[in-house]
Amino acid sequence: MAIAFPDLPYSHDALSPAISDETLKTHHGKHHKAYVDKTNAAIEGTDLADAPLEEIIASADSKGNSGLFNNSAQSWNHAFYWHSMAPSGGKPSGDLASAIDSAFGSLDALVEKLQSAGAGHFASGWVWLAADSSGKLSIEETHDAGTLAIGDKNPLLTLDVWEHAYYLDHKNVRPDYLKAVSTGHINWDFAAENYARGSTWTYPS
């Protein structure tokens, strides 16, 4: 059973102008697909051939298999990233809203911290909103293919800060991309579902 290449949860132009149709077609259809294809090629005929993606990531990490880790973790991160955004992001509510106020003071303060973390992140990687086992929120950063698919943090949403996520639309001005996405397209319903569940999101089979 191969790792699935998931469809986008919205149309390619649904996040425009923050993220253009061209960027999503390239980012999803080429970058993400390549990570999935390389993961499937690496696990074919091995004891991981039928394993869930999260298990593949954990195995590659524990064995120091950087090639498999990079492709499998990037497959997971990208699928999670697509769901972290929505055409109209809305606002957090309920327990998540309370947790945001407790940890950051306000939603605006959280969004500013996400933007700041993303803008200041050196080179490629990911910026996350995550919760610990007690439900306390924090902003986390991972470099390159680093992921919260494994570990002791529950990821609620992520923003991709690899250049290919924004360069066609915003050139080298990463803060413009982060502002456009974080102020209008964060999928707060997805984040709330992840927070309420209290365990790490599962990659679609």
From TrEMBL:
One Pfam assignment: Sod_Fe_N
Domain named Manganese/iron superoxide dismutase N-terminal: residues: 5-86
Native source organism of the sequence: Croceicoccus marinus
Residues covered by the Manganese/iron superoxide dismutase C-terminal domain: 92-193
Family: Belongs to the iron/manganese superoxide dismutase family.
SUPFAM superfamilies from the UniProt entry: Fe,Mn superoxide dismutase (SOD), C-terminal domain, Fe,Mn superoxide dismutase (SOD), N-terminal domain
Role, per record: Destroys radicals which are normally produced within the cells and which are toxic to biological systems.
Amino acids binding Mn(2+): 27, 78, 160, 164
Gene3D superfamilies: Fe,Mn superoxide dismutase (SOD) domain, Iron/manganese superoxide dismutase, C-terminal domain
Catalytic activity: 2 superoxide + 2 H(+) = H2O2 + O2
Keywords: Iron, Metal-binding, Oxidoreductase
Protein name: Superoxide dismutase
A single MF term (Gene Ontology): superoxide dismutase activity
